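Support request, please re-run this one:
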Amino acid sequence: MTSMLELDDIQSGVLRPRPSPYAATYILLRIDDATAGRALMGRLAKVVSSAANPESPLSDTWVSASLTYEGLRALGVPQEYLDTFAWEFRQGMAARATALGDVGESSPEHWESPLGTREVHVVLTALSPSQAALDAAIDRARATYHGLHGIEAIWRQDCHTLSTGREPFGFKDGIGQPAIEGSGIPSRNSHEPPLKPGEFVLGYPDETGNLPPMPGPEILGRNGTYVAFRKLHQRVAAFRRYLQESSTSPDDLELLAAKMMGRWRSGAPLALCPFHDDRELGADPLRNNDFGFADDATGYNTPPGCHVRRANPRDASVAGVVRLHRMLRRGTAYGPELPEGVLDDDGQDRGLMFAFVGAHLGRQFEFVQSEWLNGGTFLDLGDAKDPITGAQDDGGGTFSIPKRPIPKRLRGLPSFVVTRGGEYAFMPGIRALRWLSELRT
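Re-run finished. Output below.
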């Protein structure tokens, strides 16, 4: 078994980190004619960017293409091959809603159309550091389906860096990505050695030493990966009000926000500066992710139930399994900013387009979502959920902050994040796109 990544066959969106600043667009397509769909695959093979040449001036601008299970069916992929894909992928995200915590107002019946339906076949993503370069990338992507009768663009979401450079709740985002052996992208956490490539790209050994299950035939599965796209609406005004009502001063408010997230809004981790913000540390990519939790078992610095510690427990007591659940995350903000200091909701849709990238939908994305973010057993937190992203039950969420002599316990946490839709997709290698273009039924 070789672990040398074939970067020229892997789509850039798999391995390249999100640029900062950024502009992004997501476009969903429906395939009404298999012949047109195959022609689309051939065109996309010439447009999508590969992960090779990371030093190229164009390496931060790319177009990537993914297909849903229904999209592969629409192309005419034989059922014997469709049956080899991960069963979560075959079911689709909407069918997995209960396991993912997408219940109540986040349930698929409330999702934005056509997300979660059989209408979604292809997901095109364009990402760039500038709007001008993004527009050029979108033009290239649009050219692949423009004029193809039987291909319909059915949804679009534009994203952009906010003026603050942070996500809508006000925190620096895009920190904490794992390093991957053979990717050419160095690790920024000395506490975490690079992970095996098979955790993120199919056809290579993963952390178990084995090859992860790969769809057949090999040309279709190799160098591909699974992607989970989610549109997450953020209740910024509600988050601000909760912080204000639960704190005694502006400084106390910022500390409370940091305790819930696990980082100060600047990106500085509580693990390295637990008592005050350090904006210089937060802005330093060589330092703001270089820490662990082994020396803070109780969580006096970083509460065990905070978002950062749940999403990646690092070297804490569950360290033996953490590497099996690591995943690549991409987040891009959408919607207008809520002006600083505003505590009332203005009715505008704002939030994050979230994307998971990994070779194991079940033990990576679904496990973290269900067991770590929406569950608390693994850290002896009972039924408490993530205070930032957790699917709270009717505003009855709780969050405990270890503190001497008596812990501080927050009650009445509402859901600050609501799922507006999502899709499971497969991002094939570039050779696989060409193979799909040559399918015959």
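The two ends are 33 Å apart (CA to CA). Residues 7-232+426-437 form one domain.
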